[in-house]
Every structure is written in structure tokens, then in C-alpha cells.
Amino acid sequence: MEIFKKFIDNQNYIDDESSKKFIKATTLKHFQKKEFLSKVGETATSFYILKSGVVRSYYIDETGKTHIRNLFTKMETTGDVGALLTGEPTKLYYDCLTDCEIYVVNFESFIDLTKQNHGFSMFYNTILTKVTLTFEAKIYDLSLLNGTARYLKLKKQIPEIENLIPQYHIASYLNISPVQLSRIRKEIYSK
Fold first, then answer.
1. Where are any strands of DSSP class E within the chain?
2. What is the pLDDT of residue 2?
3. I need a surface site. Which of 8, 32, 145, 184 has the fewest CB within 10 A?
4. How much is the pLDDT for 98?
5. What is residue 43's DSSP assignment?
6. pTM for this entry
7. In the sheet where 66-72 sits, what is the strand order?
8. In whole angstroms, what is the distance from residue 158 CA to residue 52 CA?
9. What is the dotted CATH code of the domain comprising 2-131?
10. How far is 141 from 152, CA to CA, in rounded Å?
11. What's the farthest any 2 CA atoms get from each other in the chain?
């Protein structure tokens, strides 16, 4: 819980008493590689804060191909925010690409905390802002950056990514084929 406490303490607007309430509303769980946090069609009740590991969000198209929408690593929040906000069934799968330790936060309890404490309202706003900026960046990257630039950006964000997950997951996240990724890597590392 020490790492989690530091995460909460970094939210300057949450006092110690509120921090303790939040920690009580949170459960640390261990998930195995390939274990799901949520599946398409389920009712979302929680969001997640990763202590360790890598989680992906993805969908499967009508041909059966998997498309990774996002990758989440240490101390990032994840979960189907749209489903939490609307009450509609989840539209994405969330699963662990590695063994993970994850703080599970009950969304309803969290919203109750936001109503009781301005600091948690600010924290909630921070989470929603980060989600929005992440999606904006992903759309920008897919629209304007080539595969090499997207790969280099991912390596800058998660330097150890190649040691954490298979190349085909990296390729899916970058919206390129594994063959394209292999060529990009060969070109970069041969310089």
C-alpha cells in the first residue's frame, strides 16, 4: 500500500483523512497474465490503478482480429470510463498482458467520496482529463505519425515494453503488422 499512498499523496488536493478513506474503499488484487478485468457486454462497477504489470484495452472486429486501443502500466488508471459514466455495457475487453497487481476501486464508492470531499472531485477531474488527453493523443498519433514515429514514442513512454509483452501486441497497439514492426525495429537498431 505504500506505493499507492504515494500515488494518492501526489494528488496535492487530497488531505490525509480523505486519503485514508480512499485507501479503505480500494482493494489490492493479484491478476495472472491473460486474466480479464472486464469483458465486452459486462456492467462496469470499478476502475483500476495498476501497481505493477501491463494491461491492455482492446476490441475484436468482425473478422476476429484484435485491435489494442491502449496499454496501461505502473500507476496508471484504467477501466471502461464510458461504461462507468453511462451505465451501458462495456464495449472493450481489458486483460492483463503480464502478471499484475492492481488496485480495484469501486466506482460508486469513489463517486460518494467526490460528493463528500472537494479533493476527490479534483482527483476525479484529473482522471477524466488524463483519459481525454490519452484518447486525443492516440487519435493524433494514428492520424499524423507514421509507424516508426509511433514506435519511437511508445519506446519513450514505456522504455522496457519489448521486455514486457510480445511483439505482436506492440504491433497491434501501433496499428501496424508484426512484419512492419520487425522492419521498423531492424531499421532503427541497424543505425
1. 26-31, 36-38, 46-52, 55-60, 66-72, 77-78, 93-96, 100-106
2. 55
3. 32
4. 97
5. P
6. 0.88
7. 36-38, 93-96, 55-60, 66-72
8. 13
9. 2.60.120.10
10. 11
11. 57
Rg (CA), the chain: 18
Going 32 to 37 to 58 to 109, the CA torsion angle's sign is: negative
Euclidean distance between CA atoms 90 and 96, whole angstroms: 17
Query: Which set of grid coordinates corresponds to residue 131?
Result: 483519459
* 150 compared with 15, residue with greater pLDDT: 150
Cα–Cα distance for residue pair 104/47, rounded to 1 Å: 6
Which residues share a beta bridge with 101?
Answer: 30, 52
The position carrying cell 499512498 is 5
User: Hey, which residues does 95 pair with through a beta bridge?
Assistant: 36, 56
Is the pLDDT score of 148 beyond 90?
yes
The DSSP result for 136-189, as a single string, is HHHHHHHHH--HHHHHHHHHHHSTTHHHHS-HHHHHHHHTS-HHHHHHHHHHHH
Nearest to 56 by CA among 141, 48, 89, 64: 48
Alpha-carbon gap, residue 175 to 160, rounded angstroms: 19
Exposed, middle or buried, 166 (CB in 10 Å: 0-12/13-18/19+)? exposed
CB 4 within 8 A of CB 74: no
- Tracing cell 486519503 back to the chain, one arrives at 19
